[in-house]
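Quick look at the format.
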Amino acid sequence: MLNLIKELTCLDGISGREENVRDYILQKIEGKCTVNVDPLGNIICFKKGKNTPVKKIMLDAHMDEVGLIITAVGNDGFLRFATVGGIDVSVLLSRRVKIGDTLGVIGSKPVHLCSETDKNSLPKVEDLYIDIGATNKEQALEHVQIGDTAAFENEFLDLGDNISAKALDDRIGCAILINLIENYDEYDFYAVFSVQEEVGLRGAKAATYTVNPDSAIVLEATTAQDIKDVPETKQVCKLGNGTAVSFMDKSTIYDREYYLAALNSGILSQPKAAVSGGNNSGAVHLSRGGVRTIALSVPCRYIHSCSCVCNKNDIINTYNLAKCMLSGIASGEIK
């Protein structure tokens, strides 16, 4: 699965511009399930299994990643931008980005020109710019235009027990879902590769309405703060401790029976020990008359940056737990 994740993270798919990721996934799952692409760009799949489930089940993973969108091109050739999704300004400074085939660097005021006040605070996004080497506006417009998106430029790293790359949130979920389509055939299920999660759960809202499931499993990556100087009670979840299973966040109170079933499955897992953030579950569980929902997440350090870090075994455990929960709900063993 690691090679699949590597290939997925090397693709650029800012929210609303997921076509590169979508085309790759469509190629991977061709002939393995029934596929429809809806008007928003969601991939909605039906995988026929050996048995009919007692409940219609949908699994979701989002294709999009956080990034930037070009809002202006200055006479000096520098590009102004806005963020797409939740990006802390600290992870933007001096980063390399890619706008289509054009490379650039995010620039800001040099430190030796900063006042003491400036040095003790982060700049605002509107004070940053992208330098693509253009000397004037006309030259810049030969390569980019307003409305183009910019993605982090970074390589995939194998760090032994861990991996690092951009967009592990949520290309890991996409890789798990592709593997389920390829290898799981016990029960029928629906699989959704959704768009625009990072800007408000938009794709999942439309896709869930279309599928109209009884139950849903949302596959995600979630913030891990098991790093230096963070108190134990603030660490949320830890790399190497298995899948993070959510009981509540800012958009969802999760199904209690599904939550307990996941933690008691015998597959390495941990509670996501914070009521914070959110994911596609917020749209999924409110669709139509309501959907029983669980979120299974891979712990991820430095999320929404160019250098996310996840544990290899956590990825495998999340795949196994998703398969276990799918079979348990489909068979009726998990009530």
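Next, a different chain entirely:
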Amino acid sequence: MSIERMKYLLNQCEGIRLEFKEATTELPGNLFESICAMLNREGGDILLGVKDDGTVKGINEDCLENIITNLVNLSNNPNKLDPPFILHPSPYSIEGRKILHISVPESSETHKTGHFVYDRSNDGDFKVTQTAQIALLYNRKRNHYTENRIYPYLGMSDFKTEMFPRIRNLIRGRYQNHPWLDLDDEQMLHKAGFYGRDPQTQQEGYNLASVLLFGRDETIVNIVSHYKIDALLRRVDVDRYDDRLYITTNLIEAYDLLMSFVEKHLPDKFYLQDDIRISLRSKIFREIVANLIVHREYTSGYAGTLTIYEDRVETQNPNNPHGNGLLLPDHFVPFQKNPLIARFFAQMGRVDELGSGILNVHKYLKAYSPGKKPQFIEGQLFRTVIPLDDTLRQKDGAVNGAVNGAVNGAVNGAVNDAVSSLVKDRLGKELKRIWEKEGLNLRDLMTEFSIERRTAQRDMKLLKDAGLVEFTGPDKTGRYMLTQEAKNIFSP
């Protein structure tokens, strides 16, 4: 969240989606009542270190880290928040004083704190004790959030267990002390909210969100046979396509495949942010791809699509709308369509806080495609339109596509057919990164691609055997460099 947005919130009055709480040296005693109530209602923002009237009182800086640690740990503790919902507060400096911002999404589950359910109204948080009221909460979420649909006969054998080490690496790269890192695979699924009980049938089991995130391809087909994501390039043959990627695998792998498709067919631009080079293409399209995956209604038979045209990129996905029409960065209320899936993507660092996607795309598109504005259109089919200026069109795109095509062709031609398409795709990315960085060591590869040491070593062996990379320098400090054959791909 930007500092401008934070100042805007401080000038508002408390309401159903906004709560101020004083916190000088420790967490407020009633904090989890507000968190629980917001999770159960519409979500919202909680600012710690602020008086009820919006006056910034501040948090003792010596206590700030301890407060953050306690909040993360308690939100993962079922004795405090049941079921758990990990929250990561963000610190800000306002008028020389420290405050904490907690972004609370609406949850697809019904939560308790202190063994009681809480709900939210404009007057604050209130305890829900009547059975009929609790049933209304359950039913509202059950009818709106299909990601919680229970499948009692699913077991660990229905999931791609090889995904878990990779997921832990992604989480560790973002949160070194994340409480999920010490759990085994099954415990992680339970803690992340992917195992539950149907409040009507009382049957327990894994839910639809778990299938979509971790399911084997055959498991996904059996449960949501209509699920697919279609990525198309339509620059020349606009009636059919110039290139196509048809995705039916789990959402974690689908994200990587879609990002690779974007990198293959769209150029990047040189851009410095705080004297550090960043990828504008990545900044923009990680938000677009995540939005396409995270906020989709997966019980709908419509396919999600990402289409690259000569002058724009469009995505479309089936949606359970929370309003209709064009969403503007200064006049929209963010709303998560699949909170469990969104939260898991946030723990991996693939999405930021709720509502940041639209803001980030508007921010970075100004540099990537000057003078153009993105469109986010809410409806039964959610559409995004990312316009491309002249410098991003066919000339630059064709050069970029030619290089990508040559790299992918070299990898596909040199690597054994038994190697999976996902591994080949990663090898191509690694080869391009070695070229961009003029060499990488093993630790760089592990960090940049969120892979384990043995995976990085295996990848480099495949590329060495293919004659595309060579190792130079001492064993401990040496780097993998492109061979002359590989250099010719990038400079034909």
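The radius of gyration is 24 Å.

See the schema section for token definitions.
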